[in-house]
Amino acid sequence: MVTNLFAGYRYTTHNLNLRTGPSTKYSAITIIPQGTPVTIDEDCDCKWIAVSYNGHIGYVSSKFLSKTFSKHSNYRNQYSRRQSQNRYYTNVDGYRVQSPTYSNSSNGATAICRDGTYSYSRNRRGTCSHHGGVARWL
User: Fold this and answer.
1) What is the pTM of this model?
2) Which of 18, 16, 54 is nearest to 35 (CA)?
3) How far apart are CA 123 and CA 94, in angstroms?
4) What is the CATH class of 3-66?
5) Number of H helices, E strands in the chain
6) d(C-alpha 111, C-alpha 136), whole Å
7) Is the four-CA dihedral 55, 58, 63, 64 of positive or negative sign?
8) E-strand spans in 33-116?
9) CA 11 to CA 73: how far, in whole Å?
10) Per residue in 25-83, pLDDT tens?
11) Per-domain boundaries in the chain
12) Nearest-CA neighbor of 35 among 3, 78, 87?
């Protein structure tokens, strides 16, 4: 097994079961949709890799992960449709903040997430946490 210590992300190439352990013998925690960015702690040449997705940590088959976002993936299109109206949340300081969104305008954005969304977070901690991490601070 070749291992490179690396904290990064990959994109799912198919709908994947996120499992409690590194084989199909382990139970599924949830299904990760095709084209979704997942966070990895290390890049390895192994059959199963530990990933973080939507607050869950588990294992997926590495043969269904890609380093690049596929334009044929339906994730961004589904996400864009869900985000057609801006959504908001209340942060830890009690402020109402716009949720990350795909947009042609970055008015008020504080960061660009690795999945292409703009983040409007007022705190650096947790910014873009469900969007592959921060690609660039604005």
Assistant:
1) 0.49
2) 16
3) 12
4) mainly beta
5) 1, 12
6) 6
7) negative
8) 37-44, 48-53, 56-61, 65-66, 88-90, 96-98, 111-113
9) 9
10) 999 888 888 888 888 877 777 899 999 888 888 999 999 998 877 654 444 444 444 44
11) 3-66, 83-137
12) 78
> Which of left, alpha, beta for 76 (phi over 0: left; psi -120 to 50: alpha)?
alpha
Counting every residue written for the chain, the total comes to 138
Q: Do the Cβ atoms of 99 and 121 come closer than 8 Å?
A: no
Task: Specify whether the CB–CB gap between 37 and 132 falls below 8 A.
Answer: yes
Give 3-state DSSP helix, strand, coil % of the chain, rounded to 5.
Answer: 10, 40, 50
Residue 46 tokens read as 């192994």
pLDDT digits (tens, 9 = 90+) for 113-125: 777 778 888 888 8
Please name the residue that has the structure tokens 């999945």: 115
Contacts of residue 107, defined as CB under 8 A and 6 or more positions apart, other chains included, come to none
